[in-house]
Specification:
Length: 392
């Protein structure tokens, strides 16, 4: 990886690329989309995906890993921190706000359909903007300010997967403060961070029966995963030279072990034992960061690379698509394939094919337009520094 000189005159690394981790990020986004499908399927209800809440935590770990690699030595001043927060905001916010308004439009359509007699109350479940609904004015305002999942409300609302965006954005402030005021550079620093991660997970284990924590204590869940990734990045930067000393065959064996360990953890750790996630996730991200074995090569191919590019859009758009697809399927497809009985799960797997195709197609557009054009426009509006730009 090459080095460059940043706008503050200090050395900084060019954006690192971890092909296997990137590929896993794309695959995980699809698995989350399957998890949120609204009908019975073998993949969802009779596999690790159903209880795979800890799949989400890998996103936090990946974020902590990459951001420490990018910024762990390069956040030194208030201007650096401000630019870092602006960059993350411009990355996260455009599609978040786009999907918030998309969900709001869908809710208004449901409300109109009910008042017009097109659907019954049973069809529409709880009406949006009613006293019982979590999709209301208060939660809408919270979504605007990315505070909808920091303990202010008692349920998820609107685009429910976006709870992770809410908590991760505020974890960035903790991360930036840590790097500026206390750069973790020595083993004792990593030991202290590890102890704090253990304390966070221990505390969460006393609150919840498993890792399915979102709108209430999701911030702490994210904090634990994010800084697990930070430790993984520190270890990688310290021991990165070992890659050349280990053969491809050994790397393949290590990758297989890391993959099997995490899959086993996801499948068999389904209660409070999920709070022992840190060592499993740390081993996974550390091993695959090296891109050393056959599994890494497989995860680095063009298909997974493309899924990685659109993964944020997949993650943010799939929930609404799942709801709409379910409504259409119940109305027009259930007489041909009826997967709404758990004993007929295979029909739901058939539904997953067109559903995922639609998710990918929509996500490609939002990746290009909302993330791409929208992100660049917002970056200009809020004054994100260009590469190589100096501050006065």
């Amino acid at each position: 990886m090459t080095n460059a000189v940043n706008n503050m005159g200090a050395k900084t690394q060019a954006r690192p690329f971890f092909a296997a981790l990137d590929g896993f990020r794309g695959l995980l986004a699809l698995l989350v989309a399957i998890h949120h499908s609204q009908w019975f399927s073998y993949l969802n209800y009779k596999s690790f995906i159903n209880e795979g809440f800890v799949l989400i935590d890998l996103f936090f770990v990946f974020s902590g890993f990459l951001l420490y690699r990018l910024y762990g030595r390069n956040l030194n001043t208030r201007a650096d921190v401000a630019d870092f927060i602006k960059r993350r905001f411009a990355r996260l916010y455009p599609i978040h706000i786009f999907m918030l308004f998309a969900f709001t439009a869908f809710n208004l359509l449901r409300l109109w359909a009910y008042k017009s007699g097109i659907i019954s109350l049973s069809d529409g479940a709880i009406l949006p903007f009613s006293a019982e609904s979590t999709d209301n004015i208060a939660t809408f305002i919270s979504h605007i300010f990315l505070t909808h999942s920091v303990g202010l409300h008692d349920a998820l609302s609107y685009n429910w997967p976006s709870w992770t965006i809410s908590v991760e954005f505020y974890v960035y402030f903790i991360f930036a403060a840590l790097i500026v005021f206390w750069k973790p550079s020595k083993l004792r620093h990593v030991g202290l961070i590890s102890a704090l991660i253990a304390f966070v997970y221990w505390g969460l284990s006393g609150i919840a029966p498993r890792m399915d924590i979102t709108y209430d204590y999701g911030f702490w869940r994210c904090l634990g995963g994010f800084f697990t990734g930070v430790i993984g990045a520190w270890l990688f930067m310290r021991y990165g030279a070992v890659k050349s000393k280990i053969s491809s065959g050994v790397w393949t064996a290590l990758e297989l072990a890391a993959l099997l360990f995490y899959l086993s953890f996801t499948i068999y750790f389904i209660d409070k034992s999920q709070f022992f996630i840190a060592p499993f996730a740390l081993f996974f991200v550390f091993i695959f960061a090296f891109d050393g074995g056959l599994i890494s090569r497989f995860m680095s191919n063009g298909v997974f690379g493309y899924l990685a590019k659109i993964s944020y859009s997949v993650y943010m758009t799939h929930a609404l698509i799942a709801v709409v697809f379910d409504i259409v399927a119940r109305k027009f497809l259930s007489e041909f394939v009826n997967p709404y009985n758990i004993e007929q799960g295979l029909g739901g797997d058939i539904y997953l094919i067109p559903y995922l195709i639609i998710v990918i197609m929509v996500s490609h557009v939002t990746w290009r337009v909302v993330e791409g054009y929208g992100g660049r426009w917002l970056s200009r509006v809020i004054g994100v520094r260009r590469r190589g730009e100096t501050t006065s």
